[in-house]
Every structure is written in C-alpha cells, then in structure tokens.
Design brief:
The chain has helices at residues 10-17, 21-35, 79-91, 110-124, 138-147, 163-166, 172-184, 201-212, 242-255, 272-280, 300-310, 321-329, and strands spanning 40-50, 96-101, 128-132, 151-153, 188-190, 193-195, 220-225, 260-263, 285-288, 313-314. By secondary structure, it is α/β, with parallel strands linked by helices. It has a single domain (10-322), classed as TIM Barrel (Alpha-Beta Barrel), CATH 3.20.20. The structure holds S-adenosylmethionine (SAM), 6-(5-methyl-2-OXO-imidazolidin-4-yl)-hexanoic acid and iron/sulfur cluster (SF4).
C-alpha cells in the first residue's frame, strides 16, 4: 500500500487512532523508520517577538487581553535583539527559529516591515525561519516568502465541531484560509493542535483527518499538551495522560509519514520515559530552550542529557523530507 495519501476517510483515521496502543506504536515506528532517520530529532527554538494584549479569546492562551495572566507584555521587539537571540539559538544547536507574535492577524504596517527584516536576518544566518503571527493574506504570504521564510505555523488546535467551544473570535474556515494562502505562496505549513482542551476522541480524530486531507500534508505537525495557565478559561485543567499524547503522535505519523511530528508544549511535565515513548511513536522534533512563548520548557542542558541517554542527535537543517511530501502529492 502506498503510504502517502491525502484521501483518508474519517473511519480509517478512527480505526488507526483506536488500535491497541502497542500495535499502533509498532505501526507508527515502522513508518517512521521507513521515511526518517529515527535517531534524529529536529531542535527548534521559539521566541515571542510580541507578547500579550491579543484581541482573540482562545481559551487556553495566556496572551489574550481578555484574561488576567502573569506574563511580561511587550510590543514588537527590535530587529537587532531578535537577531541576537537567533544567533544564540544557532550556537546552541537549533536549526529552526520560530518567531511568535500575539496578533489576530498580520497588518500591513511598520511592524510587518520589521517582521520581514527579522525573517531575512535569520534566514541569512542559515537557520530555517518560521513565524506564527495569526491570520495573513495571500499577498503577505508572498512577501514573507520573498524575505526568506521557511515555514508558517498556524494550528487548527481542535476539530471543526469543537472549535467554537475554544475560540469564538474567528472560525475554522478563517484558519483553513490562512493555511491555503501560505501553501499558495510556496511556504511550508506547520499545523497541529492541542490535546487536553476537554475535547473528545472524536474531535482529535476529526482534527487529524482535516490535517491529513489538506491538499498537501503539513511539513510539520505540532502536538501540544495543554499547559493550563492560571487566569485563562482552562486554568486548573488536568494534565493529559501520556498514552493519549502517544496515540496522537503515532496516528499523525501514520497519516502523514513525511511530516515532522513535533512534541511541543507540555514537555516540562513529561519525564524522559514518557518523551521516549513519544519518540518511539514517531515524534521527531522538539522546542528547546527554557521558555516556549510565555511558559517554561525543559532546560537545554536537560534536553541534551536526554538525547545522550536515548541515543538521539539533533537533525541538520534544510533537509527535505517535508518538501518531498508536497511534491509526491502534486
Ligand atoms: N497568535 C498566533 C496564532 O494564534 O496562530 C500565534 C501564537 S499561538 C500562541 C500558537 C499556538 O500555540 C496556538 O495555536 C496553540 O496551538 C499553542 N498554544 C498556545 N497556548 C497554549 C497552551 N497554553 N498550551 C498548549 N498550547 C498552546
Ligand atoms: C505550537 O504548536 N506550539 C508552540 C508553537 N507552535 C508556537 C507554542 C506553544 C505555546 C505554549 C504556551 C506558551 O508558552 O505561551
Ligand atoms: Fe492571540 Fe494566538 Fe493566543 Fe489566540 S493563540 S489569544 S490568536 S496569541
């Protein structure tokens, strides 16, 4: 059977997701070995270049202006300080630098010009540049592409059916439109979601089905475990059991064999044994550095000790697996 498909039926996705756990992990690990070097894990660094004050009401997010959270709000950083941070990330072995901004959407203003300069500067350092800055138009996507962007992160977060329980200030369709603008401009898409929002298994299956049936599979699929931030609507939510994280990772790996599946938010709470299970199930990328956007993440040195223990190595940049996914489908 040809593994790279974008015509998955929802029932097929459910069948995979619901397989006995160890059988699922075995299947995912087999696909992982066929398309990737299993000892390689991509190391990405995140930087929040504009923090807080966001007009959206995403119920998990510390950066929405509607909630009272303990974060360090700041306007867009200047270009030089971002480039200094990018250089530090590179020196620490990161091959991808992802800049996040708490905006509903990109606007054509001076901030966007600064973002374009940041993208160009980081690209010139030889790192893969990713941005996650909210919705954008096709024209803005072309401008980012021109500046040297490698990928754009825009998560679906959950299923279409559950979306309005989590966010009311935009629609699922808005999200899909931005993804299509990004793909049209030839930028790789990074899109995944969060588990632990109170969604059902059916919702998780629905989100994975939407991602795996996009015209082109995302180049990367972040799987976040909710970090329940005090002050947000979802404060106090229980941590998701690791086996549910493993199930998501493994299903994503089987559905989208060429994608980088990123074990994203929530790693601080996961012992090495749990993270190892996720790597076994096909996760091959992490965010490193002691901070995600606003919440803590494992120390770099702890991650390097984990790599050593598990026999993993950071993956070099500009490898092409994800690109081939698009070529195969087109
Ligand atoms: N404003 C932009 C947007 O919404 O696309 C970019 C930044 S936003 C913080 C990027 C992603 O981080 C969200 O789509 C969500 O999936 C994830 N995220 C945010 N807060 C989180 C939390 N508390 N726990 C887990 N994931 C979270
Ligand atoms: C993604 O899916 N996860 C990252 C990245 N893409 C931008 C963000 C996680 C944010 C976790 C909460 C915080 O630190 O504010
Ligand atoms: Fe704003 Fe993005 Fe946070 Fe939603 S997830 S509140 S859009 S920063």
């Amino acid at each position: 059977m040809f593994d790279i498909r974008n015509d998955w039926k929802k029932e097929e996705v459910a069948e995979i997701y619901n397989m006995p756990l160890l059988e699922l992990v075995y299947r995912a690990a087999t696909i992982h070995r066929k398309y990737h070097t299993p000892s390689e894990v991509q190391v990405c660094t995140l930087l929040s270049v504009k923090t807080g004050g966001c007009t959206e009401d995403c119920s998990y997010c510390s950066q929405s202006a509607r909630y009272n959270t303990d974060i360090n709000i700041h306007k867009l950083l200047d270009v030089n300080s971002v480039l200094t941070k990018a250089q530090e990330a590179k020196d620490n072995g990161s091959t991808r630098f992802c800049m996040g901004a708490a905006w509903r959407e990109l606007r054509n203003n001076r901030d966007f010009d600064k973002v374009l300069q940041m993208v160009k500067g980081v690209n010139d350092m030889g790192m893969e540049v990713c941005c996650t800055m909210g919705m954008l138009t096709e024209e803005q996507a072309y401008q980012l592409k021109e500046a040297g962007i490698y990928a754009y992160n825009h998560n679906l977060d959950t299923s279409e059916e559950y979306y309005d329980q989590i966010i009311t200030t935009r629609t699922y369709d808005d999200r899909l439109k931005t993804i299509s603008h990004v793909q049209k401009a030839g930028i790789r898409v990074c899109s995944g979601g969060i588990i632990g929002l109170g969604e059902s298994h059916e919702d998780r299956i629905g989100m994975l089905h939407t991602l795996a049936t996009l015209p082109h599979h995302p180049e990367s699929v972040p799987v976040n475990a909710l970090v329940a931030v005090e002050g947000t609507v979802l404060e106090g939510r229980e941590r998701v059991p690791v086996f549910e994280m493993v199930r998501m990772v493994a299903t994503a790996r089987i559905l989208m064999p060429l994608a980088m599946v990123r074990l994203s938010a929530g790693r601080l709470e996961m012992p090495i044994s749990e993270q190892a299970f996720c790597f076994m199930a096909g996760a091959n990328s992490i965010f490193a550095g002691d901070k995600l956007l606003t919440t803590p993440n494992p120390e770099h040195s702890d991650d390097m000790a984990m790599f050593e223990l598990l026999g993993l190595q950071p993956r070099e940049s500009f490898k092409t697996e994800g690109v081939e996914a698009n070529e195969i489908l087109s």
